[in-house]
Design goal:
The complex is a heterodimer.
Chain A (H helix, E strand, L loop, with lengths): L2 H7 L1 H13 L2 H6 L3 H4 L2 H29 L4 H7 L2 H23 L7 H10 L1 H18 L3 H7 L1 H8 L1 H14 L8 H21 L6 E3 L5 E3 L1
Antiparallel strand pairs in A: 1-2
Helix pairs in contact in A: 1-6, 2-7, 5-6, 5-7, 5-12, 5-13, 7-9, 8-9, 9-12, 10-11
Chain B lengths: L18 H15 L4 H7 L11 E2 L13 H4 L14 H5 L10 E6 L5 E4 H7 L4 E8 L4 E11 H8 L7 E6 L7 H5 L7 E5 H4 L5 E6 L2 E2 L9 E3 L12 E7 L6 H5 L23 E4 L6 E3 L7 H4 L13
Parallel strand pairs in B: 1-4, 2-11, 5-12
Antiparallel strand pairs in B: 2-3, 4-5, 5-8, 6-7, 6-11, 8-9, 8-10, 12-13
The chains are: A mainly alpha, B alpha+beta.
C-alpha cells in the first residue's frame, strides 16, 4: 500500500481536507487583510462557500468512475470509503452558502428571510441553486444508516442518483453567478464529465469473460 | 461621524502613496540631479492629469451625511475588465507598465469647435479641478461614496459647441492590447463604449473625474480621466476616455451589446426594476462591514435628474 493510499484511508485526513477550505477566508480577511476582500467580506465568503460546495460535490461524484475505470488502483478504492462523508460535506458547504446569502441579503434581519426566499424562487439563477440545495438536503438526510435501512438498497440508490441532477443545477447556478461566464465552472465540472463519459463507455463494453458461441454451437468462455 | 471639510492643501489620512508614484519620485530626484527646469519637472512628477491639483472642494456636492469610502477600498475593488475580471486584478495589472501619460482626448462629431487636447490642457481650460463627493452604485448591488476631483462635463461639451442636430454623446475608451490583458483576451468587445442622451450629459451632475481624494486618479480607477454619472449604474461611468463624440444616433453601449436582456442604455439606478438574476432593492456598502442599505431611486439624485425621464417607462427603458 502506497503512502498516499494509507493517508487517504484515514478519516482524519479526509476530515482535515474537507475542513481546511472552509477556513481559507480567514487569511485574506483577518490574518493578512486584502483590501479587495475586506471591501465586501461577506460577498467574498458567499462566493467562496459556493465554490467549495461545487468543488466537493464534483469531487465526490468522481469517486465512483475512478473506481470503475481503475479498479486495481488503491487510491480509488481508498477514496470510495468516504463517499458519505464527502457527500455530506458538500451539503454542509451548500447549506453554509445559502445561510450566508439569506442572512446577508436581508441585512442581518431574520424577518427579511422570507422575502429573500421569495426573490430567490422568482429568479431562475437563484432558483436552480435552491433546488440543488434541496436535493443535497434530501441526500444528506437519507445518508443516515437508519434511512438506508428504511428505504432499502434500490430505492436509496435511485434517490441518490439525484446527486447528478444537483451537480447539473449547481454548474448552471455557478455559471450564472457573475456578469461574465467564469472559467472555474469548466475546471470543476469538466473533469467529472470526462470521467463519467469514460465510465459509461467502459460499462457498456462486453466483459472479457463473456460467453462466446463457437460455430459448433457449444458455449465457450474465453 | 462628522465629515470634516479638508482644506485645499490637505490630503486625507487614508491616502497612501501608490507604488507607481513612489518609483517616479526616484526619477524626480534623478532629474533634479541633472538640473532639469522646475516646470518640466512638475509635469513629470506624477502619472498623468496632474493639472488641477490641489482641487477646490465644491460644497454644493458635499453632503455631510455621506461617509466617503476608504481610499484603499476604492482603489482595490474595481470592475475594469480591460485588466482582468476579478475585483483585485486591475490594481496589479493596470500598474504593470501601462502608460497614461501623455494622453490625448478628442471631442469630435457634430460640434462646431472640435478639440484634440492633452488631458492636462483640458483640465486647465476647464479652470482647474473641483472635488465632489458622489455615491457610486454598481449594477452588481454594491455601492461606494467617492470624493472625485475633476470638472463638470457640460463645460467641456459647451466648449466644443454642439451643433443643433446632436442628440447623444458617445464615449470611447482606449484600445491597447499589449498593455491590457483583458483586451488581449477579448473578455468583452473592446474598446469599451458608453453613451448618454445630450440632456443627460449636460446635467449638472455629469462629471469628468481626473482624481480621487485630491490626488490624480489611479490606473485601476480609470486614469487619466473618466466619466461619473452618479444616478446610473457604475458601468455607465466609462473609464480612461480617449474620445467624446456628439452624434444623432443612440450609442450601442458595450454591456447592452453583450447582454441586452440585463443591461440597457439608460441604466438608471432603480430599486423597483430588478436585474433578471438579482434584486436591485438594496445594496452592500463597500468597506461598511455588515452594512447593507436600501437602494434609492436614481441613487438619491432624484431632485436633480427625475425631470429627464418624465413620462418614460423606466421598466422598458432600463
Amino acid at each position: 500500500m502506497s503512502t498516499l493510499e494509507k493517508l487517504l484511508r484515514s478519516k482524519l485526513v479526509i476530515w482535515t481536507l474537507l475542513v481546511l477550505p472552509g477556513l481559507w477566508p480567514l487569511w485574506p480577511i483577518f490574518l493578512r487583510p486584502d483590501a479587495s476582500v475586506t471591501a465586501d467580506p461577506f460577498k467574498y465568503v458567499l462566493h467562496h462557500l459556493g465554490f467549495v460546495a461545487c468543488l466537493v460535490l464534483a469531487t465526490v461524484l468522481a469517486f465512483s468512475p475512478l473506481r470503475v475505470l481503475w479498479p486495481k488502483w488503491g487510491v480509488a478504492q481508498a477514496l470510495n470509503r468516504h463517499r458519505r462523508l464527502v457527500g455530506v460535506a458538500a451539503f454542509v458547504y451548500a447549506a453554509l452558502h445559502l445561510g450566508t446569502h439569506l442572512i446577508y441579503e436581508g441585512g442581518f434581519e431574520f424577518a427579511a428571510i422570507p422575502a429573500t426566499l421569495k426573490t430567490a424562487v422568482g429568479k431562475p439563477f437563484q432558483l436552480t441553486g435552491l433546488i440543488a440545495f434541496t436535493i443535497l438536503l434530501v441526500l444528506a438526510l437519507t445518508s443516515l444508516n437508519s434511512a438506508i435501512k428504511w428505504l432499502g438498497g434500490k430505492r436509496w440508490k435511485n434517490i441518490h442518483r439525484l446527486a447528478y441532477v444537483a451537480a447539473g443545477l449547481a454548474a448552471y447556478h455557478q455559471a450564472a453567478a457573475r456578469k461574465l461566464f467564469p472559467m472555474q465552472v469548466v475546471w470543476i465540472f469538466g473533469p467529472l464529465v470526462i470521467l463519467e463519459i469514460a465510465r459509461v463507455w467502459k460499462q457498456r463494453q462486453p466483459k472479457s469473460g463473456a460467453a462466446v458461441v463457437t460455430p459448433s454451437g457449444a458455449a465457450r468462455s474465453g | 461621524m462628522l465629515i470634516r471639510t479638508p482644506k485645499d492643501w490637505e490630503l486625507p489620512a487614508s491616502a497612501v502613496t501608490p507604488e507607481s508614484l513612489y518609483h517616479l519620485s526616484k526619477r524626480r530626484d534623478f532629474l533634479k540631479a541633472l538640473g532639469v527646469a522646475g516646470a518640466a519637472l512638475a509635469a513629470r512628477e506624477v502619472l498623468a492629469a496632474t493639472a488641477g491639483f490641489p482641487s477646490k472642494v465644491n460644497a454644493a456636492y458635499r453632503d455631510p451625511a455621506l461617509k466617503p469610502t476608504a481610499y484603499e477600498h476604492i482603489t482595490s475593488y474595481n470592475n475594469f475588465y480591460e485588466f482582468g475580471t476579478d475585483k483585485a486584478e486591475p490594481k496589479t495589472l493596470a500598474n504593470r507598465g501601462w502608460k497614461t501619460d501623455p494622453w490625448t482626448v478628442e471631442v469630435t462629431g457634430m460640434v462646431n469647435n472640435p478639440l484634440k487636447l492633452d488631458v492636462n490642457e483640458v483640465v486647465e481650460k476647464m479652470g482647474g479641478a473641483e472635488q465632489r463627493v458622489y455615491r457610486l452604485r454598481c449594477v452588481e448591488a454594491w455601492s461606494m461614496v467617492v470624493p472625485w476631483d475633476g470638472f463638470q462635463l457640460s463645460k467641456l461639451i459647451a466648449l466644443a459647441d454642439p451643433k443643433s442636430e446632436a442628440k447623444f454623446v458617445k464615449f470611447t475608451t482606449f484600445l491597447d492590447k499589449k498593455s491590457a490583458p483583458g483586451q488581449a483576451d477579448g473578455n468583452l468587445n473592446y474598446p469599451y463604449i458608453e453613451g448618454l442622451r445630450l440632456d443627460e450629459a449636460m446635467n449638472e451632475l455629469s462629471f469628468i473625474a481626473t482624481g480621487i481624494y485630491g490626488k490624480p486618479i489611479p490606473h485601476q480607477n480609470g486614469a487619466p480621466l473618466r466619466l461619473v454619472v452618479p444616478w446610473k449604474y457604475g458601468f455607465k461611468s466609462i473609464k480612461s476616455i480617449v474620445k467624446i463624440e456628439l452624434t444623432d444616433k443612440q450609442p450601442k453601449n458595450t454591456w447592452q451589446v453583450l447582454q441586452a436582456s440585463e443591461y440597457g442604455f439608460y441604466a438608471n439606478v432603480n430599486p423597483t426594476v430588478d436585474h433578471p438574476r438579482w434584486t436591485q432593492a438594496s445594496e452592500r456598502v463597500i468597506g461598511g462591514g455588515l452594512g447593507r442599505q436600501k437602494t434609492l431611486m436614481f441613487n438619491g439624485y432624484e431632485p436633480q435628474v427625475a425631470s429627464l425621464y418624465q413620462g418614460m417607462d423606466l421598466k422598458k427603458n432600463y
